[in-house]
Amino acid sequence: MRFHRNCESRFALEEAQQIVIQWPRAAKREDLMKLTRRTLLAAASSAALLIQPVASAAQELPRNVRLVIGSTSTGGDTYQNSAIVAEALAEQLGINIKVDAVGATEAFKALGRDSRGNTLMIFHDQSYLGNLYGVTGYADPFEGYTVGQTVAINPGNAYLVGCDSPYQSMDDILTAAANGDRVRVAIQPGGVSEIGFSAMKNAASVRAPGSEENIVAVNTGSQSDKNQAMWDDLADVINGSIQANEQFTQLPADDQKCMRFVWITARPATLEQAPAAGMGNTTRDQMLQYASPATSVTLDGTQDFTFDKEFFFLYNKDMDPAIIDQVDAALTAIYDKGAIQDRQKASFFIPNFLPADEARQHLTDKRETYAKVIEQISGGS
Amino acid sequence: MEFLSIISPLFLFLVVGGTFVGIIFGAIPGMTATMAVAVCLPLTYSLGLENGLALLLGLYVGGISGGLVPAILLGIPGTPSSITTTFDGYPMAQKGEGEKALRIGICASFVGGIVSLLALYLAAPSLAEFAIEFSYVEKFLIILFALTVMAALSTDLLMGIFSGFLGIFISLIGVYDISDGGNGKLRLVPPGTEYWLDSGFSLLPVLIGVFGLAAILDQAELGVPKGQSRGDVKIGKGSSFSFSVFKGQTVNLLRSSGIGTFVGILPGVGGSAASILAYSQAKTFSKKSANFGKGEPTGLMASESGNNGLTGGALVPLLSLGIPGDSTTALLIGAFTLQGIQVGPLFIGNNPDTWNAMIFAMLVANIAMFAMMYFAIRYFALVVTIPKHVLFPIILMMCVIGAYTINYGIMFDVWTLLIFGLFGWLAVKLRLEIAPFIIGFILGPSAEIYFVKSLESFGTLSIFFTKSWIAMLLWVLIIGSLTASIYLSRRQAKIAATG
């Protein structure tokens, strides 16, 4: 098909060249008209010929691709996940993909500048949660960009208390808030760390309207800061992760650093798939005791709030959709082979590939759920 | 001693090779130890945990150490923690003592590395227990203590302090990042520049611009006098190196190494603060404090033993609490995660062989660093003999590449380099002082975060005086440092006045 179109275009180009050469002889009016018509036709065909290779190149990923990520850390979960996916994708497509940890703001800028497909992005739920929380630099990814395939879940998002804490469970925490006690929760504001906190406030509001005022945020930065906030008695509950905090739960109870899980936000189905190697000395059954339904943080009085931190692709809004189809096909083939799942599980990720259309719908629904939680909390407090 | 079975020829090769590559990364302005570790991190997946760590620890030690080469020979800190190395190392190179300065720096680095390694091996869990006594308040006071060096480094006290505060002010431009616990809002950004300035100015492009590009512009303004087309500094012109230079420096070396190790164990305080604090204390306690900044070996020793002291110190919270002490050790967590190993308070007890292998790798990396740099130094030192019309374009190119790559390809970082190169050139003409400016720029963001977080957490300014005995001790040190700086400044002025 492409060959025929090329032939036609080349013929028109040759014809146009002949007309230019014959120009002095085309002096008559009708010849001029014919000439003009032919010239326009030839010019259009020539333009089509010139544009055609560019257009065909834009239908697939270029030879060198830059994969920007929404984190500046090359040791964090976003980089690890992206590196695993980029390596597999590069091998599958026979291209070069370089992962650049430029951070959310710079990544969105870089993606917004490039509609040719040279720049792609991988990030997680922070991309839309940042927007929902009104953080500077976070545009609505569903409006400004094209949301693509999901690739994995990090199931580790958790909340912990000190071993000397009077709170044994989330139920104790919500009861305390209902009884008028102030519960301080150390989080990093504006995203994944805050959504669980918002859910706690929402659950408090559902259980005893007004009690959500007693659950207050202690804004911190890194995990180190959150841990320190607990050890300094500046926070009663901290946001953490299974990977970073599990060993603290194994310390003797009289150790100042000892912690206890009270809530793991992942869905039980997600925890069922989590690799045992990443759970340390805590068994899967014990982990499930801290997750829904055993630990209930209600969303609306009937169902529990859950949160899985999912990693997914983002594309430039004006990029050729054929590239997304190409990535869909490549990732389908990669996940069918199965090797990538082993690598992801070895790094405590749960493989979660969904083709772009399915992923977009799933993430849109997920965003809507969390938007309601945030809206209710904002309206109520 | 089961860990000895881990020590294979490949293990040793990876440590030594990693150290070599790390030195090269550290020696190129704009390339850092963090970048070296980041580039090689994916390789560790196929190497296995111990071999992967051998490579990364070699890169870490080499990267921190290599920073002294451009700091001494070109006056451009190869890494932010080499900033104070330029203060005395570069003047020594200009006096024809480049080779001597490099050898002093390497020996001091080795001492710093070994002292911190001993601290790591013998007292990691206890040091980590001590580290968690430092809340936002104590960390702010540590940064304030480091900021007192601005006064010590000032030729004109008033102008120096003004320059330092200007540095702090410029460092705060941009968003108050949520990853620091901030509110995610922009501040100090002029309207219309939000697109470029939302992340503020990156440290390394500023550093290279102020020290590298500004020096090139300065030289370009002077021109190359006839007969000096080749480098006008001969490496053997000044006095040669002898170990006797370390006579009477034991206290300085141990104190500086100790400061480096101590700052390393405090997560988030940052490597630059280690060498700045070590340098500041060396100047305060030195009988030759007037020579600091003019090519005094004592200052060079303090800076280099301080920044290499960081290497072992930063691993203390990583291996005892699972909390990285600096940006490079944060990457090491990635290596553990890639192998499915958790780092936290139980790591050392649960993984004694890996722990011993890491200590051994650090020891070999320090020895390899010393051997490679000490004996290859005469070749490094030849850089000063390269004609400036050849050398400067190469430096400029490296600076631009370094600035572009430091944050993985952000063009505004190149503009930052050029803007601050011009600023550095003009600042000298305006009598602004560059050293206090850059120290303010480096420490400003940490000072802000810890100050704001202290107030948010405790709600009163009096907490800075009443939080703990550590806070009280730090105030004594801060006041002592300031008093000593003012006294020394006045004494120098008096000596200068009496001729």
Structure, described:
The complex is a heterodimer of chains A (381) and B (499). With 381 residues, chain A is of the alpha/beta class. Chain A folds into three domains: 2-58; 67-155 and 319-376, 3-Layer(aba) Sandwich (D-Maltodextrin-Binding Protein, domain 2); 157-307, D-Maltodextrin-Binding Protein, domain 2 (3-Layer(aba) Sandwich), CATH 3.40.190. Chain A is 50% helix and 18% strand. Chain A has helices at residues 2-22, 29-58, 77-93, 104-113, 126-132, 141-144, 170-178, 192-207, 223-231, 242-245, 268-273, 284-289, 321-337, 339-346, 356-380, and strands at 64-69, 96-100, 119-124, 145-154, 157-162, 183-187, 215-219, 237-241, 259-264, 309-316, 350-354. In chain A, helix 1 (2-22) packs antiparallel against helix 2, helix 7 crosses helix 8 (192-207) and helix 8 packs across helix 15 (356-380). The longest helix of chain A has 30 residues, at 29-58. Chain B has 499 residues and is an all-alpha fold. Chain B has one domain (2-498). Chain B contains 23 helices and two strands. Chain B has helices at residues 9-27, 33-40, 44-47, 49-66, 68-73, 83-94, 98-131, 136-147, 149-153, 157-171, 194-197, 203-222, 250-265, 271-285, 297-321, 327-338, 347-350, 352-381, 388-406, 411-429, 434-458, 463-466, 469-498; strands at 174-175, 186-187. The interface between A and B is large, with 60 and 51 residues.
